[in-house]
Amino acid sequence: MDKRQLKLGPLLGIEGETRYTVCFLTDHRATQACVLANGTTFNATVVGKPYSGLFWRAELDLPAPASGSLISYQIDIDGLIASDQSSTFEWSFYLPGQHEHAKVAYASCNGFSDLKLMNTTPDPYAVWDQLLKMHRDQAFSMLLMGGDQVYADSIWTVVPTLKEWNALPLEEKIKRKASKLMIDHLDRFYCELYCERWKQQPVATALATIPTVMMWDDHDIIDGWGSFPAKLQECAVFQAIYAAAAKHFELFQLRGAAHNQSRIAHQGSNVHYSLGFTFREQTIVALDNRSERTIERVMGQIHWNEINAFVDRVREGDLLVMVAVPVVYRDFSFVENAFDATPWEEELSDDLKDHWRAREHQGERARLIMRLLDNARERSGKTVLLSGDVHVGCLGVVKDNTGSKTINLHQVVSSGIVHPAPTHIQWMGILATTNDRTEQLDENGRICIDMLKVFGAGTYFRTRNFVTLEHGNDNKLWVNWICENGEKPAYPLNG
Fold first, then answer.
1. pLDDT tens sequence across 303-357
2. How far apart are CA 278 and CA 371, in angstroms?
3. CB of 391 within 8 A of CB of 324?
4. Is 236 exposed, middle or buried (0-12, 13-18, 19+ CB in 10 A)?
5. How far apart (Å, rounded) are the C-alpha atoms in residues 336 and 435?
6. Measured between alpha carbons, how far is 398 from 376 in angstroms, rounded to an integer?
7. Mean pLDDT throughout 254-278?
8. What pLDDT shows up at residue 109?
9. Rounded to the nearest 5 degrees, what angle is found at the Cα of 287, between the Cα atoms of 285 and 292?
10. Quick check: 236 pLDDT over 50?
């Protein structure tokens, strides 16, 4: 391969009001690299050495201009201008003005959970094409990606040592250690997974020209991670899988976790990966709901304390909270109870245990909602949860009438940008075994949770989609679902 061609990237990130990052993967021969942006040179450093080469990170400090402007950039490797996999040598992104509202896009579920879905979807990246077209017409300030940025489901069939291990009886699996060969196989698998999925067009162009914020979900590790029985999740092989997935998540999604300026964890802490920063009067919080997850909990106490302390400091502007699995959604308790009563519970209910309304997680769910409501009472701005995971689009609301003024906490679900929606039969099964009746969160019935019907669609829309969030001149935050089927659901959030 030509030394000037990137193996992956560039990957454009944002970590604060003025902090942007450009990351890329080169082969092992590269010795120096930098980013050339609008006449300024920003040195790049190696922050990781995955299987396929060297992972570089450059930090761009770009103060907000008086009015919005385009930033053009190139990548220099050992004195030669580098190209991406499509032979592009220069990219650009939009830097919003100092007093400009950021135009935000949100997406999730960028992949397929099984080979059949992949092979039967005629145009896997059609919605990415729509996103990129919108970006070219009116640039996004950032793209929030809320989980399942890659799908690692093929791990059980393409990693030979793992395939052999998976054929063992359960008790033998738990006793086995992860061999060095298996660890090498896992490292290669995750590195090649990211390279293969993110070099596809138009995904590659979007990731190079729209600053992103990413937080993982289970498919970035393995399906259902954190909702397996403890004896399985804590065994040596599962921990090796997690370690390999986390290593590559830290590089490709967090752009070098040790260097990421937006991490909420105390300096030096590797317990969790939650992110938070303010950009143009909007505060973004991305909750890590996987690194500490077990059947009994979603986040640990130290993690909660750090999230609470961060949110308590947000006193103005809108608060956008990325939480991969919907906090406000249909009630699966009937199905969960049915599985609990059968001997197949461990094998069948990991997806149910993932939901916030699972019995074990209801306390943490209420804690999160109450904390956000408390903050909303003290802050002039809107509070929006951004979720995915369920492969449909929808909108929910937590309505708090305990005070003199009604407080609304909205939840926007956008899912998925690549993963297909449930089939009609699958969706009929979900509707038959779940419900979305009004939920009361307090004994006086003054905090209620409902799903909302949005303009231009029903309560749920089974089509691939992404979301845009834009401030209107009516002081509302407009949510627009951009759908593959041509529907144009929209809803104004008043606060």
1. 999 999 999 999 999 999 999 999 999 887 766 555 554 443 333 334 667 888 8
2. 19
3. no
4. middle
5. 13
6. 12
7. 86
8. 96
9. 155
10. yes
Q: Name residue 467's amino acid.
A: V
Q: Which two tokens stand for residue 235?
A: 């065994």
Contact yes or no for 174/168 (Cβ under 8 A): no
Question: Residue 44: its pLDDT value, please?
Answer: 98
Using CA atoms, how far apart are residues 86 and 78, in angstroms rounded to an integer? 20
Q: Is-contact 102 96, C-beta < 8 A? A: yes
Q: How far is CA 174 from CA 147, 156, 166, 168, 171, in A?
A: 28, 16, 11, 9, 5
317 Rama sector, left if φ>0, alpha if ψ -120 to 50, beta otherwise: left
> pLDDT per residue over 412-439, tens digit each?
999 999 999 998 998 898 888 888 999 9
Please list the residues that pair with 449 across neighbouring strands: 398, 439
Contacts of 430 (CB under 8 A, 6+ apart): 330, 422
Q: Where are the alpha helices (DSSP H) in 287-361?
A: 301-312, 333-340, 345-348, 350-354
Whole-structure pTM value: 0.94
Reported as a single tens digit per residue, the pLDDT across 359-389 is 888 999 999 999 999 999 999 899 999 999 9
What the block records as the tokens of 49 is 């050495």
